[in-house]
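Field: sequence (string)
Field: structure_tokens (string)

Example rows 1 and 2, in order.
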Amino acid sequence: MTQAGGVQKVVIIGSGPAGWTAAIYAARAQLEPTVYVGIPKQDPGPVLPGGQLMLTTDVENYPGFPKGVAGPEMMSLFQQQAEHFGTRVVGEDIVRCDFSKRPFELHVSNGEVVRTHSVIIATGAVANWLGLKNEMRLATLGGGVSACAVCDGALPIFRGQPLAVVGGGDTAMEEATYLTKFASTVYVIHRRDSLRASKVMQKRYLDRHNAKVLWNKGVEDVLGDEKITGVKLKDTVTGELSTLEVKGLFIAIGHTPATRFLKDSGVELDAGGYVALKHRNSYTNIEGVFAAGDVADSAYRQAVTAAGMGCQAALDAERWLAAQGID
């Protein structure tokens, strides 16, 4: 392994709204941040530098964009702003962290070891996908397949249309209930004959006049070329195949926080695998290690909340470094 020269003040791991916002604040504070944006991969769905917004064609709920903005364009603008203030960008993964040493040692996918006084973890959470080829293709193209109803459900292409949600937990019920405001009919597709969601969440959805549940059904294929036209279903009891015509498909089978690289690092995770934070700030259980965005937020998972958390993390890191006599 080669040893990277010098000790950095702050390294930011991750390149979504949280990471870039942290970089903007850290750079303007003259902390000379480096952002490790990651390497594109399939896991089983697309995982791209820039996070989940790279799979979002139109973002209409982020302040400052009255006509909406494409997710990839937004992330490009965030990056340009961070670089404008002097942020260094590296297209590699951090694969392992050694927080037992000070300065910390971060092991990079290219074999380098980076030393830094502080770290901001902003690697996000990856939506769990069904893993179907056309599902992935349409999600990437903006063809009506999404993993976030709150992000995309109000878009004009979905209004007044039949929509489907895959899942049976609280997240699926929340997403499906939200969609009933816009869709002609919302179908919840569930592999079992009963929902896992809490009774109150089930009732909230089922009380809607346009809510339906398709029991004992699994999605075998997603249909459509440029836009989704329907889904092929398989009955999990009888094996019978059927087709459901829909104009949108929302996958709501959970998220996996991107914390695999933190194994054995000592960073405390909660029961869901998200980075555990102290109340109302970005501090982890390790002094000098901070976290922001979806990697530490299982509740909201929105671009605007992630950006806000990135701001907090940079300010916390700046204040912590100053207290250590590092500026």
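Row 2 begins here:
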Amino acid sequence: MSTIRREPPAVPRVRALAPDLARGAMLAVIALAHAQVLAQPFLGSAPGPGSAVDTVAQTLMTLFVDSRGYPMFAALFGYGMVQILRSREPTLGRDGAHRQLRRRGCWLVAFGVVHVLLLFPGDILAPYGLLALLFVGALHWSDGRLLGVAAALAAPGALVYGSVLALPAPGDAAAATDPLTSALFRLMSLPLTMPLNAVMAAAPVLVGIWAARRRLLDEPERHPVLLKRVASTGIAIAVLGAIPHAFVTTGVWHPDAGVLVAVGTLHTAAGYAGGLATPP
């Protein structure tokens, strides 16, 4: 009598919660950071010290929020690219999975253009889409190449955002512009802001790809020592590197443009460490 072989029941794939929790937390941090930008007409140096409560709040924002959310979110974007590749490659093959990632990147660019046209010049969707298109091949780089290129891109990324923080406050004319002209100005700025934002986010994206290969967030119980060291060291670097900029954002210190760029660059570079160290 022949024996009927029974296949074991399929085990449903369980979605890792840590990356989703981290994305939600970083979106909240990014929203908090942008709230103050919309509430005050300056990016860098404050006109002067405010009340004690305002000074404390602004100091905490500078040390723990400003430029600390988007590095982790960018790293999670790279992490998600690996997750998509890992889930699609068995059925679509490597080329098919790559095509899907590139298609998603194109849609992000398209949504980002609409976002800029209708609402906000500081869009990040289009830069992420651009990075998805550029870094599909990076999903197969060696670990050394990933981290080496990430380290090389961190320097220009920090300098770019440090320079943005040193920009003077917009005048009253910017606020008086009619909606159609404002939309046109936003759209015309996109060819400049999209690559600049992409450069700022490129290093964390590559680090996120490296982390996803090790399933650092999928299986955190396997990497407790590494995660604790990254968290403690990164947050300490972020706080120390943000102290000079905190004097600027609270209106206590008004350095010249060159020093302001250097302070902003240090603040941003330290933010890479703090953002990547933020626990999910």
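free_text_note (row 2): Residues 69-118 form the longest helix (50 residues).
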